Amino acid sequence: MQAQKILVTGASIAGPALAYWLSRYGMDVTVVERAPAFRDGGQTIDVRGAGRVVVQRMGLEALVRANTTHEQGIAFVDQDNRTKAFIDVNAFNGEGPIAELEILRGELAKLLIQHSQDRVSYRFGDSIETMDDKGEQVHVRFKQGGEQVYDLVIVAEGIGSTTRNGVFGNEVQRRPLDLYTAYFTVPWQPSDGQVMRWYNIPGGRCVCLRPDNLGTTRAFLSFQQAPSGYEKLAQDEQKTLLKQMFAGAGWETPRVLDALENASDLYLDAVGQVKMPRWSKGRIALVGDAAYCASPISGMGTSLGLCGAYVLAGELSRHADHAQAFAAYEKLMRPYVAQAQSVPKFGPRLASPHSRFGIAIGHAVLRIATVPGFKTLFGKILSPKADAIKLPSY
Question: How does DSSP assign 11-34, residue by residue?
């Protein structure tokens, strides 16, 4: 494809990764992000399998490794903080529940932006107000004023992308997993160490504490419930809800709820997946969570975003016709996405049983997960199939 003027919406993971590869192929790329400035921090994510291959081809693996959280494993604890089961980071060759390359979302996004900003224009504090695909070009009006014409627009936003919804309408299918998750930062304490601690609470709830590399700790709370609109509540209302949901839960939950009061980075959402019959329409295409969110339960969101960005940019560089490039991108990514999305709806109930007996059984099963003879079997269950795609060399 000849040099194109391309607009990418969303500056988290898939957007900056896509912008890097497009600019490397000679495209004129602008990334627009509605957040007023770069969003630091966020939850811990992992770079694994084919996603790691993409990072290697970008020349970023050493920097990613230097900025990881250095988690050593995951401990499943009881209310007295006694470890009932433990899975070491190396138990499944660094590709198990805790991957070798665990990094904060914001830290990875920052590396991707820094790696591309000398060739890509980043426009924070703005978003698309209207788009008009006229066949030969896409006319875009921005909310902060001004209009621009682009050859292509790529939507790299999150699961609830309003830009995608405006283009694809009722083609957007969200599969709920009847689970809510909340993330925020809490002050570090010596007990946090370098291990993720997972505490199950009867009723399908859990509280997790994860070390980071910034001198703080990342808290993760989840509870099982069908979508109820909690993600649309004001942040103060969300905090009240979480305090009610986890009142009297034991372990270090009171510490977590105390920190929640002053947390400025709370993010609460209903966990689900995005399934769509197509990822492009005319000169507009989707990548990452906006196209095929697999949910945090899959352990594949980052790998899908990185691989999708790499493949989409590569196919656009390879084909003179954008429609052919979009079709080739879908053909290559669809099987990978389908496998990543093969998460059973009862998955949350397995991870967070509803009864004390169920929790005890879960701990017993996890204790034998790394025992020789069982390791191969549990590796197939606990390790996301993040390398189930052969990435072309563009």
Answer: -SSHHHHHHHHHHHTT-EEEEEES
Its domain, for residue 42, covers 5-69+103-174+273-340
pTM above 0.90, yes or no: yes
pLDDT tens track for 8-67:
999 999 999 999 999 999 999 999 999 888 777 689 999 999 999 999 999 999 999 999
Q: What's the pLDDT tens digit per position in 225-262?
A: 999 999 999 999 999 999 999 999 999 999 999 999 99
**Chain Cα centroid distance, residue 19:** 18
Residue 391: burial class (beta carbons within 10 Å; 0-12, 13-18, 19+): middle
Q: Rounded CA gap, 156 and 33, in Å?
A: 10
With residues binned 3-state (H G I as helix, E B as strand, rest as coil), the percentages for the chain, rounded to 5, are 35, 25, 40
Residue with tokens 């292509």: 152
- pLDDT at residue 286 tops 70: yes
User: Total structural domains in the chain?
Assistant: 1
pLDDT digits over 287-304, tens only?
999 999 999 888 899 999
Tokens 């899975």 map to which residue? Answer: 87
CB 28 within 8 A of CB 5: yes
Q: Is 202 helix (H, G, I), strand (E, B) or coil?
A: coil
Burial 26-40 (b: 16+ CB within 10 A, else e): ebbbbbbbbeeeebe
Q: Do residues 357 and 351 touch, judged by C-beta distance below 8 A? A: no
**Residue 37 belongs to domain with CATH number:** 3.50.50.60
Query: Nearest Cα to 274, choosing from 319, 232, 304, 307?
Result: 304
